[in-house]
Amino acid sequence: MIAPSMSEARATCLPAVPLHDLRAVWFQLAGTLCNLSCRHCFNSSGPRDPWLAPLESAVVRAHLEEAESLGVREIYFTGGEPLLHPDILPLLEAALAVAPTTVLTNGTLIDDGLADRLAILAAGSAYSLEIRLSVDGATAEEHDAIRGRGTFGRVLAAARRLSLRGLHPIVTAVEGLDRTPRAEPLYGRLRATLRAAGVERPRIKILPVLPLGRCDGGESRRLSPADLDGVDTDRLECAQARVVAAGGIYACPILAGLAVARVGTARLTDALGPVTLAHRACVTCHETALTCRNA
Amino acid sequence: MPERVSRIALLGGIYANDLALQAVLADARQRGAEAIHCLGDLGGFGPHPDAIFPLLDAAKAECVQGNYDLAVAQGAADCGCGYTDPRDNAFARVSYAYTVRHTSPVTRRRLAALPPQRRILVGAWRLLLVHGSPRQINEFLWESTTPDGLLERWCRQLDTDVLCFAHTGLKWHRALASGRHAINAGAVGRPENDGTPRVWYTLVTATPDLQVEFVPVAYDHEGLARAMERASLPPEFVETIRTGWWTSCLEVLPVKERARGAY
Hints:
Chain A has 295 residues and is of the alpha/beta class. In chain A, 27% of the residues lie in helices and 16% in strands. In chain A, the strands form 2 sheets. Chain A has a 9-stranded mixed sheet with strand order 7-6-5-4-3-2-8-9-10, covered by helices on one side. In chain A, strand 4, helix 4 (112-123) and strand 5 form a beta-alpha-beta unit. In chain A, helix 3 packs parallel to helix 4. In chain B, helix 3 crosses helix 5 (105-112) and helix 7 runs antiparallel to helix 8. In chain B, strand 5 (125-130), helix 6 (148-158) and strand 6 form a beta-alpha-beta unit. Chain B is an alpha/beta fold and 263 residues long. The interface between A and B is medium-sized, with 28 and 28 residues.
């Protein structure tokens, strides 16, 4: 589906958002292939039969070139687990020649050897290589209940390895999954945990629960044009980013691969039109001021 | 377009640091700067927001508006610095509340009247001066997160040879493949996160080639630190003035810039 025009969107009572600037291009590098099956995964990634295929390396390289010509500011590699892509390191090198690049990973595959290679890539580029680790909770009990047994220890070890090499990771955590009453918000508890684990400069990004994939609760509410009255829509991810994934170009990283969010088929240049906020996840994005980018 | 000059001084955020500004203006005069241009954010962080315009006026300096200037002028709820981390925002709230309390109506009117951009000539070079970026007053253009492709595109679209900006507090300069230039002038009011209390400004000279020189300036930082203590500004801010290491608003730094500091 190509996004309808603004006038068509009004006719269907769904708000539409024009692209303000193409600041970020995301690559759904691994599709929905992942070595974990997290309880809250918004795109239901997992190790078997990914519903969204990994991207071919040639497709990534072509779109990197196009992104550069469009003046993109940031590149993101996500999945699934992007470190499972067979060409992850050469593709990272290609991306870092164009713009600062971020890898969103569960961290469980980052051993000393991979941390060394990432540090070499980072040192060889003028642009920042950011590694974003998903840590959902401040204790093994909280995190492993969501991401699988033993994963807390593995991701903390990855955070420590990266930190030791000067690649101070950004730790992202979804708040609201753990229903246990806590005296202190997740941000402060996670900061203390990371410091105790030897992560010298904890950098933390808190994200909301997204009502889709494995957290799809059947919520039916949609945004109306009135919801956007007085709202600075330029801050929305779909006003600043596009996603390259199997099957085309999509409006935002949360909805990559879904037909409702497809805004183009082949070239970024042809996918810069307005986006209709047609999904229930758009409500979360609007209400929480969520940005998928690093800051 | 004003009279053509061949050497100017570019000043990044002054942040209500009148002592550093005095030292920088004296240094720039001594080095032959024919014009002084300030890239916005006159207040914030430091103790004396009302002391800045008189010094700039005496030096006949021209300014563009920064996000801090805009926020104070409009009585906005926050400084609009663009932080997203709760720790960064907590420090930003303290600094903004202090600045608003200590900014007079006269200063506020002056801040409101500042233009968002200026175009000037240095020799034959056409410079565009903005605070954050050409598209957003509080966009952080860090050295490690600002691609050449974006800078070239802006220069082409905006028909300029040299794009000058600040907002991040960290200086850098890049000569682009097209022959154009991008300059982040850093900050006058806060040290460079390099472990020394000195501050920096930028000299831009047409020879006729474009020369960009970052100039370190020592000033009475201990005097400023004591004034900040008397004003009950956060000890973390005072520590930065004394040590040269940033202790607050660090979470917004990209990894390369973060790794260079002490915290």
